[in-house]
Every structure is written in C-alpha cells, then in structure tokens.
Amino acid sequence: MKVAFVGKGGSGKSTIAGTFARVLARRGEAVLALDSDPLPGLPYALGLPVDDRPIPDDAVVAGPEGGPRWVLSPGLDPATIIERYAVLGPDDVRYLQFGNTSGHISTIQRAQFAWSETVKGVDTDRWNLVGDLPGGTRQAMLGWGSYADCAILVAEPTSKSLHSARRLLRLSDADWGPTTVLIVANKVRHADDAERISSRLERPVTIVVPMSAEIMAGDRLGVAPLDVDPDGSFVESVRALVDHVAGLYHHVEEAP
Ligand SMILES: Nc1ncnc2c1ncn2[C@@H]1O[C@H](COP(=O)(O)OP(=O)(O)O)[C@@H](O)[C@H]1O
Ligand SMILES: [Mg+2]
User: Is 43 in the pocket of ligand 1 (CB under 6 A)?
Assistant: First the structure.
C-alpha cells in the first residue's frame, strides 16, 4: 500500500494514520510511516516518544559543480537511510520524520532533502507507505504525497473542515494525481453527520469513525489509540479502513 492522509489541521489525520500503520503492521506487513508535517502528531498515534528526530543533515552533501545543490552522502541510499534513521516503534512500524521548523534553515532543508530522496527511492516491494501530510491544501496540491497512489481525506462534520475537504477533492486532478481518493468521516457524533459530509462533498464516505471519549482521554495522557482502547469503536473503524484499502490493492493485483 502507498497511502497518504490529507485534510484540515485537527481533523484527525495523524491519529488515524498512526493507528492505520500499526494495524497494518500487526498483519505482518513492513510499514514505513512517513511524517511530512513539521508539527508532528504522528509519533503520538504510533506510540512513539519521538519529538524531533529528523534525518541528520550530514546525510546530505553539496552536489557537484553545475549539478544539483545537494546529493545524498556517498554510501547513503534510501535503504540505508531507513535502516539507520527511521525510528523503530511499537508493532515494528518504522517512523521517518521530515524535520520540524526549528534550527538553522540550511539544516532543516538538508534534512528535508534527505527525507524526500528517501521517499522517492524507497523499495515499495518491501515497504508499505503510510504518510501524514501537513494540514490544509497547499502541500498536498504541491505533491508532498506523490509517493501515494491512494489519498485518504479525513473530514470532520464541521463547515470549516468540509470547506478544506472540498478543495482537497481536487487532488484527483493534481499533476501527481492519486488514483484513488477515499473519504473518512471522523469525530462523528450524530446519526446524520456522515450523510452531511457525503452530500457536501458529493462523494460517498468510505468509513465513519466515531468521536471517542477513550481516544480523547488517551490524548490527554499521551497514550496512543491502540494502547488506550484497542477494541473500541475508533480502532474498529480504522481496521475497517485498512480492510477497505487492502481490498483495493488486492483488486488491482488480480486485474489482467
Ligand atoms: N475519533 C476521534 N475521537 C476523539 N478524538 C479524536 C478523534 N480523532 C482525532 N481526535 C483528536 O483530535 C485531535 C486532532 O487530531 P490529529 O490527529 O492531531 O489531527 P491532524 O493530524 O489532522 O491535525 C487530537 O487531540 C486527537 O486525539
Ligand atoms: Mg497531524
């Protein structure tokens, strides 16, 4: 699988993406969790204490005269970077961070360059990719999720979230065009919430994730969804989402 979670900030992308990655990994799949949000929420959902551990900037050196500005250090390739710098989390998910916004600008840019090169060259026969994008439309439209062939759009039943989601539906037409855009209705409380999301977006909702008091309590304590409420409604819905996406890929494989 190569999926990327998009949606407005606060809609629940990181919480769902991290749980998705662990559920998939528990099925025996190798999972690389790709965090490109400079304000990362993904480690929490993975159950990782990581705050800020970008790829060190010495993974990158200046490019040759007249060539690209930067290249990966000699001897470093995507597989080596993952082995060395991706953080190993619960259920054996590997977490690769883009780098946050503090520090010297050149340090940040080099770490982000290393991250992008790694994602471009990752061995997708080996790794499932589960990405978490920054909130909103800008980075998504610019192709920050272009490693993915399936975008998962997380929308809350609020008008602001839906406004952002409507714009993100245009991702299907973006240059990097994910083949599939699925809609997840999150923080659903009322019987008609999912229906409202679906009619506002003029698309069916793939999975409904209820608002969960247990997940909120876990958030306050800093405990990941899968650890605080493994059999509750939130995790059940994410399992259904993993099933759905797995079904899409299965279908593709079987096509003549
Ligand atoms: N279904 C849910 N039920 C309860 N709280 C949720 C649910 N989904 C997300 N949250 C909470 O909403 C907040 C924002 O979620 P987060 O995943 O960080 O959003 P994003 O990554 O889209 O900015 C977090 O406090 C998270 O714990
Ligand atoms: Mg987030």
Answer: no
